[in-house]
């Protein structure tokens, strides 16, 4: 977890494209592959998001129980063979794997054609965030979108948003993220670092990594997934390139994109990934069998 050879390995899975790169399929199969080799394995997705319109079935599945998570976190949680370790010695030992336990920050979006949202995204607006904190679940609502009439009536009926924190501009949202979102992700990193089995960390969109660069978790190997292929990188070289990218004018200091990192380093290998049917994608063990050559190359890069 810290890059020490004696620690169980940590694998980062990032996407070469913002959407539909195949990260979750690759991650779920990798968890199954590692569990078969090591006895147990865990997958986490620090940040995730989905769309009220495009992912409506997934939205309904979660909000039927007044919860908010997406298909990716649900898929990874089902692939896990054990819970993450507690964040520290004073925290209670977790007994169950839930989407919220492996995905501390989830954002719900909606399409807004012809409109730019508060966060600067064209054609879409964020509605609310769910943050898993040390004490439970916290919701953060886009008050500007709510006041503009962009909230569906059903959303406030399906989620407990009456007492949620409301933000109306970026500076206020940045304050809330510093107070809630970042500590939630740091707490997940602490749990990953203390977990005594291999861990797969799935990134978000085409972001190079969603755990803190200077935190307790360093990837031992990285897979950048695109449709039909995965580029495999040494974890230490990828981490160094990510740190360099973080200081570039384009990337800023908070979030680095995959292409800004990979343009600086060569992959150890590029492996082919076959197309999979929906039935196979829904079964981590069958994914593991189909992608076994890719997983073997990835794990061999750590073990040899």
From TrEMBL:
<feature type="compositionally biased region" description="Low complexity">
    <location>
        <begin position="86"/>
        <end position="96"/>
    </location>
</feature>
<feature type="region of interest" description="Disordered">
    <location>
        <begin position="86"/>
        <end position="114"/>
    </location>
</feature>
<protein>
    <submittedName>
        <fullName>ATPase</fullName>
    </submittedName>
</protein>
């Amino acid at each position: 977890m810290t890059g020490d050879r004696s620690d169980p390995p940590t694998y980062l899975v990032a996407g070469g494209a913002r959407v539909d790169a195949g990260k979750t399929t690759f991650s779920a199969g990798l968890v199954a592959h590692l569990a078969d080799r090591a006895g147990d394995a865990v997958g986490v997705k620090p940040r995730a998001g989905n769309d009220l319109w495009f992912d409506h079935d997934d939205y309904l599945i979660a909000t039927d129980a007044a919860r908010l998570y997406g298909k990716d976190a649900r898929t990874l949680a089902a692939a896990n063979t054990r819970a993450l370790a507690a964040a520290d010695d004073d925290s209670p030992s977790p007994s169950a794997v839930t989407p919220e336990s492996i995905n501390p920050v989830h954002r719900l979006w909606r399409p807004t054609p012809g409109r730019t949202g508060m966060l600067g995204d064209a054609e879409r607006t964020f509605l609310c965030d769910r943050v898993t904190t040390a004490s439970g679940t916290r919701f953060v609502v886009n008050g500007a979108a709510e006041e503009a009439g962009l909230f569906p009536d059903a959303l406030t009926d399906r989620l407990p948003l009456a007492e949620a924190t409301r933000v109306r501009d970026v500076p206020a949202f940045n304050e809330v993220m510093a107070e809630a979102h970042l500590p939630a992700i740091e707490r997940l990193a602490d749990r990953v670092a203390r977990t005594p089995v291999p861990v797969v960390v799935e990134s978000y969109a085409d972001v190079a990594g969603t755990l803190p660069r200077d935190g307790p978790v360093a990837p031992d190997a990285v897979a950048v997934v695109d449709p039909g292929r995965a580029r495999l990188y040494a974890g230490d070289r990828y981490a160094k390139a990510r740190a360099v990218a973080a200081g570039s004018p384009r990337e800023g200091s908070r979030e680095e994109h995959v292409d800004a990192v990979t343009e600086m380093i060569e992959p150890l290998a590029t492996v082919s990934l076959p197309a999979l049917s929906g039935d196979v994608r829904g079964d981590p063990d069958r994914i593991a069998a189909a992608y076994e050559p890719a997983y073997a190359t990835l794990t061999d890069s750590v073990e040899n």
